[in-house]
Amino acid sequence: MTLKDGKTGMELKIAEIGDSALKERLMTMGLIPGTKVQVLRSAPLGDPIAIRVRSYNLALRKADAAHITVEQVG
């Protein structure tokens, strides 16, 4: 499953970040394998999505979230 497929309220753990132009940037923002994230909400038209990672909220386009493989926690 990818982060793009996450529904509001889901707690997820990052398994892998696929190759993309933003891979290094996402990792410097704290999206590294093993990190838990929570899907907060999505915009009215579905793009972007808001996630909570560590102690801050982050908005990601679904195209970028599709490169992040996650596992459901709990």
Helices and strands, with pairings:
Layout: E1 11-17, H1 23-28, E2 36-42, E3 49-53, E4 56-60, H2 62-65, E5 68-72
Antiparallel strand pairs: 1-2, 1-5, 2-3, 3-4
Could you characterize what this model shows?
The protein has two helices and five strands, in the order βαβββαβ. The chain has 74 residues and is mostly beta strands. The chain is globular. β3 (49-53) and β4 (56-60) form a beta hairpin. It has a five-stranded antiparallel sheet.
Global geometry: globular
Low-confidence spans? none
Topology pattern, helix = H, strand = E: EHEEEHE
Radius of gyration: 11 Å
Structural class: mainly beta
Helix content: 10-25%
The N- and C-terminal alpha carbons lie at a distance of 15 Å
Order of adjacent strands in the largest pleated sheet: 4-3-2-1-5
* Major sheet summary line: 5 strands, antiparallel
| Number of helical segments with 4 or more residues | 2
Count of DSSP E strands? 5
Overall mean pLDDT: 92
Proportion of residues in extended strands: 35-45%
